[in-house]
Amino acid sequence: MSLSLYYHPYSRAAGTLWPLEEVGVPYELEVVDILKGEHKGPELTAKNPMGKVPTLVDGELVVTEAAAIALYLADRYAPGRLAPALDASERGTYLRWSFFSPSVIEPAVMARHSGWEVKEVSAGWGSHAAMLAAAESAIADRPYVLGDRFSMADVVFGGTLRFMVGFKQIEPTPIFSAYIERLEARPALQRAEERNAAMRKQLGLQ
Q: What does the alpha-carbon distance between residue 62 and residue 57 come to, in Å, rounded to a whole number?
C-alpha cells in the first residue's frame, strides 16, 4: 500500500516530498486546494483536526506535523539508514537537532520578524542570537548533524535552515551556506523539487 500525502505545492507539504523521496517508498499526492479553503473541509479535518497540510496517511495511521512525518518515515521505512537505532549513541543528537527546528528556529525567527516582545527567560526558544549560534554549532565542524553520516535530522533541521535562508529570514553565513550546498546535492531533494515544480505547473500555479 502506498502512502498518501495531503498536499499543496505552496505549503509546508512541499517540504515533505524530500523525506518521502529519501526513504524511497511509493507515495500518492492528495492535492488540497488551500486557496479555496479545502484544508478546513470535513475530509481533511476528520484526519487532522487542525485542518492543515502536510497530513500523511499510511494505511490506517495518520501522522501530522512536518517534522513528525519525516522522523516517522525514517523510523518506519529507513531504520539504520536515515534514523539511528533506538539504542544508538547518536540517537540523542539526531532527536535534539530535529526538534530544534520547530521548537527553536521557527519561533525565534517568527518573533524577530513579527516584532514580538518576549522575555528571553520566558520564551522556550531563548533569543534570536542564541538560536543562530546554537544552529551553527550543530554543523560548524562536520558535514552533517551526525558527522559524516546524512540522516533524516538533516532533512528536518537542514530543510528549515534552507527555507529560512532562501526567504532571507536567516542570514546566509558561510557555515549555513556550505551546509545547504551539501544538502542541495542530494538526488532525493532534487527529485522533490522537480515534483513540486511539476505540480505547480499541473495546477496552473506557475
A: 5
Q: Is 101 in the same domain as 181? A: yes
What per-residue confidence (pLDDT) applies to 118? 82
When pLDDT is cut at 50, 70 and 90, the band that residue 1 belongs to is: low
Tell me if 119 is assigned to some domain: yes
> 18 and 196 in contact (C-beta within 8 Å)?
no
CATH code of residue 115: 1.20.1050.10
Assigned domain for 86 exists: no
What whole-number distance in Å separates Cα of residue 47 and Cα of residue 55? Answer: 8
Q: Give the three cell numbers for residue 29.
A: 499526492
Per-residue confidence (pLDDT) for residue 117, from 0 to 100: 83
What is the model's pTM? 0.96
The answer to the question of residue 71 being in a domain is yes
Alpha helices in the chain (DSSP H): 13-23, 42-45, 66-77, 91-100, 106-114, 128-139, 152-153, 159-166, 174-184, 187-202
95 & 178 share domain: yes
8-37 pLDDT per residue, tens: 999 999 999 999 999 999 999 999 999 999
